[in-house]
Structures are given as structure tokens and as C-alpha cells.
Amino acid sequence: MSKLADQISTPEEDARPMDRAAFDPSRVEFLHVFDHAPVGMALIDLQGVRYRVNQSLADFLGYTVEELTATTMESTNADPQRLAKSIAMRQRVIDGEIESYTNERAYIRKDGETVWGVVTGSLVRDGDGAPMFFIAHTVDITERKRAEAELLDSEERFRETSEISSDWLWETDAELRFSYLSPSFDVISGMHSSQVLGKTREEFGSGTPDDPRWRRHLEDLKARRPFRDFHYQSPRSDGMPQIVSVSGKPRFDPNGQFIGYRGTCRDITQLVETQMALERARDDAEAANRAKSEFLSSMSHELRTPLNAILGFSQVLEAETNELQGEHQRDYLGHIISAGGHLLELIDQVLELSSIDSDGVRITTADIDPRAVLDDSLAMARTIAKETDVTVNDDTGDGVLPLVHVDPTRLKQVLLNLLSNALKYNRPGGSVDVRCRVVDDQRLRITIADTGEGIPEAMRHAIFEPFNRVGKQLTNIKGSGIGLTICKRLVEQMGGRINFDSTLGEGSRFWIEVPLGGSTEVAGASEDAAPDTLAASEGHWTVLYIEDNAMNAHLMRTVLGALPAVRMLSAEDAETGLRLAQASPPDLILMDIHLPGIDGINAMKILRADPRTERIPVVAVSAAAMQADIDGSMEAGFDAFLTKPINIRETLRVIGDALNKD
Ligand code: ADP
Questions:
Q1: Ligand 1 centroid from CA 481, angstroms
Q2: What is the distance between the alpha carbons of residues 486 and 164, in angstroms, rounded to a whole number?
Q3: Among residues 165, 211, 229, 603, which is most buried (max CB within 10 A)?
Q4: Residues 374 and 507 both lie in one domain
């Protein structure tokens, strides 16, 4: 070793021309090996300065050989602790305690990147054994270090995930014995992993072995098919029932042999209980909703029946009261009819709002041309406006309007409500302007602007609240405060929106936006055919009215009494009515629905099933005015449905239509 040391030169000496006589093949060969070695090599003096480095070391640290020569080990060091260890080990070598040292070191390259090397150093001594310098070689282990760090990272990730997860994980061998259980197993299952490790499910008493679904899953695993979310009930160690959800994935060795499976399990007891509680709550809510609808339906019936008599007889009296009998009486009757009408409107609105809230209103949307709906609404608004001193202006233009996707009846209802508000809350000599424009290429905005006194800022937030008349209850302008609430619900159910702005002293602008239609099909809102009144028909008809309320029967008799061509028979219950109809079939049957004994719907079925009565037109006359009641009756086969309180004109028209049918 000392012989070699004598021959090692410094770079300065190397630069000198080689002395042929001093040529020593062993020195030249060493330098050749040193310079061209595929691992990094350095000669380091006892102070830690590299005084000769090879190309591989320079490449490893990102410098040129010249740049790296004469640098200290500290200059490229990334980890002081490891460097200190190397220095300490070098000292032990110098002290003769150890032959050489090996250490893993982290370096900073010239470009700032950290690289890893394993360095091995040995000491060269002179002939007297005095330490001269170290020869160190460094192997690049950066890739291995990276892989190790990734592995550590992924192990840590797995460990932490399995610790914090609300699932527990396991692995089995080919005989399905548990070979690994994640730490959370003990916490979640209430068992000790030692009770389970090395055992099969059968052996530790899981709830699965007898379950055919579980056996199928095991077959699936062996056929390379993973299974997911298998739910079963498993007893906890504390005896409490536990519902778990299990998933599994099979494992195979490189030869394709089944070597077990990995599984996860989650305690879903709480989830299942919550779901069951939700289902119970939903069932309860549905039952409550049904009870509410039934209550509304019967309340509607109870309120409408007496109102029917009040309004009906008032109309009859009004028709019979001539001028001679006194202006006052006609006035009083007018008040009764108007107040009754208001009461009826109120009942209708409360019922409608409740049924919208309980999803009882059916919205049937289609692509329609809004022109017909607008024209109808404007015409009706102008009729109302005649009684006021307000002008209705149609500023919707003559152009073709785009199709909108709405329920035409509901759109008309909303427009009429907004128009009637714009008229009601206007000023004498004021105006109402209706405009249309497309917004965002997606919606048609219909704006109804009035010249009323406007809505005070502080009250605007409450405009769409039910029963809130925002101060107008103190005026003599009639209203219930529900119209806008219903409008909002209906517009939103049609996928649109409604809002307003208002300037005090100048007026308000209410607008709705409804979705534009997508198809070209136009399902326009059609008006009913003009009524064929009975008075215009010829001949004699018998009408049988099945009605348990004597007052209502009397009212109908009075209404029909004005028509000499019609003879009315009445029956107080369906049984009597059916007997009469079978014995002598009438031309038309008017049928109440809520009857003592057989109800109207069942009576209808009996009529249709009997060849003697199957062809008789039957009109329902009922105070149950919920849409569901009407739909139910129409499905039972009624030809038409009249809602109590009856409107005399409407009643005559429907009866006329039914009698003129064939
Ligand atoms: P109603 O008109 O039956 O009271 P609405 O729900 O239609 O009920 O309207 C609620 C309230 O909003 C009204 O009572 C009124 O105070 C206010 N309002 C509605 N439309 C207008 C309008 N065009 N101008 C001023 N106030 C209005």
C-alpha cells in the first residue's frame, strides 16, 4: 500500500511531462482505473479536501472534474449528521480502530438536487505507517433511496388509512384462514384479532357460513370475480346485533393459483337503522299528508255545501227580483253574492295552496304558443278593467312569440292573478302594460307593469308570503294574500321564476320567466266550445238528481225549473236513485259523490254495469273539489263534473251538453 502511495501524484504533478525513467506501469494503471471507473472516486486529504476526483464522481454531483477538484466534503453535503458520522468513522480508521468505513450520504448537486450515494473510504499510509490520504468511492443509490422512500410512504399511508378507516381490512390464505387483520378490527368488531387470526369464518363463528349468498361469493372469488357490498347480520362480541357490509378481491400467485383474498368490512348498523327510521318517517309523513288531503277534501265539502245554497238561492232571487221590488233588495243580494263569491274564492285558494304544498297539483307542461294564453288573459283583464278607470295596454307586439314550455292553464292562472293585482292596486286613470322579451336565449319574460302607488321597500320581502297582505288588509281592496304565493309555487313548478321591482309613487313591475319550448309542436290553450244551452234544445227530458241534501236538491230543482223542457226527479240516496233509474231510465243523472250508503263512485259503477242504465249520461255534482276527487270521478266514468257551489250558467251549459250528446 505504501508503494502505491508513493506513486500517487497531485493534479499539479500530473500536469508535468512524464519522466520516462520514472515511468511506473502500476501508477499509470491505477490512475487509468481511477479516472475511468464507473463509480465515483476521490482522493481526499486528511483535512477532507478532495484533491483528485474522477469523471463519474463529477457527473454524479453535477460538476466538471476541475470544478470539483479541491472542494471540501462539506461543500456538497446535504445531511450534516451523516457527514459527521463519516468524519467520525474516518478518524477511527486513522486511529487504526477499523480498516475502512462505509456510509450512506446525501449530497447536494450543483443544480440543487439531492442525490444519495454509499461511500466507502480506506486510508493510504506512508512507509512508516503515517496516514497520508483517503481513497473513497461512491456508488449512486439515489434511485434505491427514492424507491425506499416511496415504499415507506405507501406503507405509512396504508397503516394510517387502515387505522383511521371505519372499515377493517384483512387478508386470508388459500384455505380462507385469516392471515392479517388491520388494527381497527379490534376497535370496530369488539373482538381481539387473536381470536380470529389463523381461523376460518366457520371456526370463529361469523354469521356467514350458512348463508348461500356468502357461498356464492366465495365461488366468485375463486373464479376471479371480486364481490362488493355483501350485507349480513353478524353478532358482536357484546351480543348486540351488528349489520356489516363486506367486499372482497381474490389473490392469485404467478401460476394462477388462488392464494386467498383481501377483504374489507364496514359496520353499517347505524346507517341501516337511520334508513329504516327515515322510511318510517316518510311513511308517517305520507300518512299525515293523506290525512291532510282527506281533511281538506271533507272541509271543502262541508264549506261548499251550505255556500252552494247561499249562492245558488241568491242567484235565483236576483234573477227573480225585478226593479219594482226595490233597488235595496237587489243591492243586498249583490252583497250576498259578492261576499259569498269572495268566501268561495278564499276556500278555493286555501285548498289550492294546501294541495300545491302536498304535491297535489298536477302540472302538465307542453310546448305552447304563449300568444293564445296572453290574448285570453288580456281580454279577461280588460273585462275587469271596465269596472275600474284603468287602461290595459298590450305591448307584446304583433310578432311571433317563441314557444314556451308551460302548463297553459297554470300560466293563464298566474297571468290573471298578476293582471288582477295590477288593476286592483292601481290608481284612477292609471294603466297596466304587458310586455314580453326573451332573456338569456332560454326564458320568456312576461312583465306586467302598473301605475299604482308601489310597494314600500320594508314590505317587499313579505310579498310572496301566504296570507300577508303587506298593509293592504287595512284598505277596502278585496284580497286574501295568497294569490302571489300560489303564483310563485306554480311558476317554480313549471321551472320558471317570478319577481318584481317597484318604485314608490310610480308603480310596480311584476314579471315571470318561463322556459322556452324545445320542440316545434304547438299544444295551444284551447277555449271550451261555446255552450249549447238547454233552452235552445227541443223535446222533453227527465233528469234524475241523486242528492242527500234537501236544500241542494231544492236549489237544482229551482235552477232546472226555469227550463220547461226538463222534468227533475230526485232521490236522497244512491240505492233509491239506482232503483228509479233501472225502472225508468232518465235522460240524465246528476249525482252527488258523498252519499249515505253507496257513494256516488260505486253507484256510477253499478249504472255502467247494468245494460238498462249503461248509456245514461251521468254528471257528478260534488262539493269535493280537489283535483284528485275530480280525476277520481272522471276515471269512474262520469261524463262531467260540476263543483258546488254551482254556477248556474255553467250548470246549464254542462247539463245541456250532456243531454244533447246523442
Ligand atoms: P291579495 O291581492 O289577494 O291580497 P296577493 O298574494 O296577490 O294577495 O298579493 C299580496 C300582497 O302584495 C297584496 O295584498 C298587496 O299588498 C301586494 N301587491 C300585490 N301586487 C301588487 C301591485 N301590483 N302593486 C302593489 N301591491 C301589490
A1: 7
A2: 51
A3: 603
A4: yes
